Amino acid sequence: MSPVRGADIPCLEQDPAYDVHWPWRDGPLSQGLTCVFRVKNEARNLPWVIPPMLEAVQHVVLVDNLSDDGTPDVAREAAASIGAADRLEVHSYPHRVSRAGTEHLATRHDSVHSLTHFYNWSFSHVRTAYSMKWDGDMVLTTEGVGVLRDLSWQLHDSGAIVAIPRHPLSIESESVAWIDLGFRFLEPWIYPMGPEFTFVKAFEWEVREFPETSQRLIAPEGLCVELKWLDQDEFSHWSAMDFDESRAPRKRREWQGYSALMEGRGEEVPGLHRIEAPPGVHVIDHVTDTWLPHAERPLVRRGRRIES
After folding, report:
1. Would you place residue 243 in the very low, low, confident or very high pLDDT band (cuts 50, 70, 90)?
2. Which pLDDT belongs to residue 219?
3. What is the spatial distance between Cα 8 and Cα 112, in angstroms, rounded to a whole number?
């Protein structure tokens, strides 16, 4: 029997179940792409989120953080609905994680309550050469599934990271939503697995490191939407809403759009577009299956690009 090696990142609280053990220390990783979700109370979104992702990538790891709405079971049901239950791996992370902003800043990076440790622990369950950070409210379009499916095999040994534009979609009702095409929300989501690609603590949240020499690929627009429900608090995971323009321009834009829609001023915000689905079709399905794939390119015509 091989000896058990020590943790690569021991947690401050000395709970060995939540120490980080990096998989590449145990041998070469297999080819392919694993999507990692870190979720809390995403049961409402996952029926739209999980199936297209499992159509696009080889494996999905879902780490649930204290959900009380049945999120893990909904994820399993969504995977089973397309015959992919064996490619979904569900874990529980039973520690309260500091909210982004001042709470995160005040929390030690190696604490189980840190966003940084939470992310590193979550990604330590990946066994493929590439991994993908994804949120539980982000839905691939039909185009997105095809592009990601191709990328998942083409990236092996390339060392490249991939940024994917996403489009916030604020849901007003089952038939009406607002899509933000006034800014280009661009963020790296796909990275190789390895010691140069781990998460570190930054000012507002965690960030993933990568070598300056890494090739950076930018995927086309229209591949995914980020769901924002107007009947719930979309900013509860933040400790303050005074978003600094220089550090968090993306969140500042999201807050401005959300506030305008809640006050009935959506038409006043440049780049916000109202979409109404045909009768009998949910607006999320309409946007991801029809509206976005057929929308004229470029989608974002004006406004500066937001990168994070």
Report:
1. low
2. 96
3. 14
- Count CB neighbours of 196 within 10 A: 13
Structure-block tokens of residue 29: 């990783």
Confidence of residue 307 (pLDDT cuts 50, 70, 90): very low
Percent of the chain with pLDDT over 90: 82
Instruction: Please state, in angstroms and rounded to a whole number, the distance separating the CA atoms of residues 61 and 106.
Output: 28
Tens-place pLDDT, residues 154-209? 898 899 999 999 999 999 999 999 999 998 889 999 999 999 999 999 998 999 99
Cβ atoms 214, 162 nearer than 8 A: no
* Residue 6: strand, helix, or coil: coil
Q: 78 vs 71, 120, 156, CA distance in Å?
A: 10, 26, 28
Q: Is residue 1 part of a domain?
A: no
Task: Please state, in angstroms and rounded to a whole number, the distance separating the CA atoms of residues 139 and 150.
Answer: 17
Is 2 within the bounds of a domain?
A: no
Report the number of distinct structural domains present in the chain: 1
Q: Report the CATH number that the domain containing residue 149 is assigned in CATH.
A: 3.90.550
pLDDT at position 251, please?
A: 77
If one compares 258 and 127, the residue with the highest pLDDT of the two is 127
Residue 147 lies inside a defined structural domain of this protein: yes
Burial (Cβ within 10 Å: 0-12, 13-18, ≥19) of residue 301: exposed
Positive or negative, the CA dihedral 157, 161, 167, 169 is: positive
Q: Are 262 and 232 in contact (CB under 8 A)?
A: no
265 Cβ contact list (under 8 Å, min separation 6): none
In 3D space, the residue among 63, 71, 61, 70 whose CA is nearest the CA of residue 112 turns out to be: 63
- For residue 195, being part of any structural domain is answered with yes
C-alpha distance from residue 160 to each of 117, 192, 259 (Å): 24, 7, 37
* Domain span holding position 264: 16-307
Query: How do 30-39 and 128-134 pair as beta strands?
Result: parallel
Of 210, 123, 85, 225, the C-alpha closest to 166 is 225
